[in-house]
Amino acid sequence: MEYTFESKPGTTGFILCCQCGTQIEPNPSNMCVACLRTQVDITEGIPKQGVLYFCRNCERYLQPPNHWVAAQLESRELLSVCLKKLGGGLKTVRLIDAGFVWTEPHSQRIKTKLTVQKEVLNGAVLQQVFVVEFIVKNHMCDDCHRVEAKDFWRACVQIRQKTKHKKTFYYLEQIIMKHKAHVNTVNIKPCHEGLDFFYIQPQDARKLVDFLNTVVPCRTQTAEELISHDIHNNTFNYKHTFSVEIIPICKDNIVCLPPKLAQTLGNINPLSLCYKVTNTIHVIDPTSLQVAEVKCQQYWRYPFLNVCEPKQLVEFMVIDVEIVADKDKPNKTPVSHKHVLANVCVNQVTSTGLSDQQYFCRTHLGHLLHPGDSVLGFNFTNCNLNHAEFDKMKADKIPDVMLVKKIFGNKNSRNKKRKWKLKHLHDDLHADTSSNERDYTDFLEDLEEDEAFRKNVDIYKDADKLAVDADDTDDEECPQISLQEMLDDLHISTDATGPDGADMMMD
User: Fold this and answer.
1) Quick check: 179 and 168 in contact, CB under 8 A?
2) pLDDT of residue 157 exceeding 90
3) Which of the four pLDDT bands, split at 50, 70 and 90, describes residue 320?
4) pLDDT tier at 260, thresholds 50, 70, 90
5) Which residues have CB under 8 Å from 420's CB, separation 6+?
6) Residue 129: burial class (beta carbons within 10 Å; 0-12, 13-18, 19+)
7) Closest Cα to residue 460, out of 491, 429, 431?
8) Selection from 497, 443, 487 nearest residue 178 by Cα
9) pLDDT at residue 459 above 60?
10) Mean pLDDT for the stretch of residues 206-235
11) What's the angle, vertex CA 194, arms to CA 189 and CA 195, rounded to 5?
């Protein structure tokens, strides 16, 4: 321990200590430091040893009474926890300075050096420096204990979409990661037609539900299950479940709107194409470029399904393209200015080559198509659909072929040339099956082809692909993502309690 006096300015001369007679500078107690040490200890009542409880699973320290704090060694947060462990002993003195004394990180010891002041005999202010040693003991926190006991969640968000592909969930996964909407998630499990997010606190689950309502068209239902009831203080313990059902309409889906809904949307053609999905469904009439937005309330009031799945689309070869003049366009509003109306002649591609039958149709892809291009579409002339709204349509309103999207090169070739990658919430979300692999490849191609679609996605550089010679891989016809849009993958080790925890995997 170190003792010092606060001397008064302007004092001159020396006096003798009243205890031992040693010559000293004058001070209010008239005693030397050695004698005063035997008489007064200003640190009396302050514990010199303590215990810190540390959870090795989540790397947090216990801050009494039951709050767990994430803190690094020799950080301000850890120093605050140590000072609070001293209790009311520091209330009797004035704390001047506090810091850490270096110890071996694996010694399970944390030492803090404190400087305090206190007024003692006859108004003398005594300053003293001392060290408090804390022993770190391992103790599992309540949250980690529930995880290990398999009874760790109090709220569950069930996200479902009744479709045969997972492109929506791949996109939703990237949006959740970009906006860190999965903070405080204790577990994520894939299941049939969706995902389950588990939380300890119901308010964390409600935050995710509110976030989903702003990014995807969906509706929510809640339920409660009583776990326990204390009759003495009338407290209840519930498990909360939030069911989020996403509208089963995705990008590049052909839909047939109910007549009443089509009438409310400006008398748009019921047989339309969904070209974008945000928190509403954006549809376009390929024969007139008329666009409309279907809100969630309108959809659930007049529900409708896809006319065909993406797997039912067939490949066509473009024979001729003729842009429609402004005077020949239908006079309908509002219309899309990002698309160009064109009359197209196509032949269906079969296993033996091109078919003999040619089809003439009107499409919104006039700004992309050229003779010789390949395009995906749906052939209505030889289809057998079981769709209630489609069966009500007149034959003259149904086109022979509806073109959906252009094909840019070979899939295997584009995968080899792809110089970027994405992060994922959990490795189990991308099970290695042929169906999931095909859906994920289609999702990556949608990101490359649509700049507005990838604005909510963090794209990272793939160092392995960047090392390949650009002359052998670049293809001007295939849409690509520029290096300016890619982020550097820094491989920073994050804290286990952070939003991007240890379960963050790389593709």
Assistant:
1) no
2) yes
3) very high
4) very high
5) 459, 460, 461, 462, 465, 481, 486
6) middle
7) 491
8) 487
9) yes
10) 90
11) 30
Q: Which residues have CB under 8 Å from 449's CB, separation 6+?
A: 405, 408, 479
Indicate the DSSP class of residue 302: S
Cα dist from 202 to 60, 224, 242, 425, whole Å = 22, 11, 10, 21
Strand extents, DSSP E, 341-497? 342-350, 353-363, 374-379, 401-407, 420-421, 423-424, 460-461
Look at phi and psi of residue 200 and say left if phi exceeds 0, alpha if psi is from -120 to 50, else beta: alpha
pLDDT at 137: 92
Q: Which pTM does this prediction carry?
A: 0.69
Judged on CB neighbours under 10 Å (0-12, 13-18, 19+), 169 is buried
CA distance 117 to 122: 15
Give the torsion sign (CA, 224, 228, 232, 235): negative
Q: How far apart are CA 385 and CA 91, in angstroms?
A: 80
Annotate 125-172 with three-state secondary structure. EEEEEEEEEEEEEECCCHHHHHHHCCCCCCEEEEEECCCCCCHHHHHH
DSSP string, 226-258: EEEEETTTTEEEEEEEEEEEE-S--TTEEEE--
SS3 365: strand
65, 144, 189, 406 from 90: Cα distances, Å? 18, 33, 48, 73
DSSP conformation class of 312: G
Residue 494: per-residue pLDDT = 40
Direct distance between the N- and C-terminal alpha carbons of the chain, in angstroms, rounded to an integer: 57
Other residues' Cβ atoms within 10 Å of the Cβ of residue 177: 20
Q: What is the mean pLDDT of residues 286-313?
A: 91
pLDDT of 105-146, one tens digit each? 888 899 999 888 887 766 667 788 889 999 999 988 877 777
Q: How far apart are CA 156 and CA 205, in angstroms?
A: 7
Query: What are the φ and ψ backbone dihedral angles of 311, each rounded to 5 degrees?
Result: -70, -15
Tell me how far apart the alpha carbons of residues 236 and 178 are, in angstroms, rounded to a whole number: 36
Class of domain 2-139: alpha beta
Q: Where are the domains of the chain?
A: 2-139, 143-246, 253-407, 411-506
Q: 């204790």: which residue's tokens?
A: 186
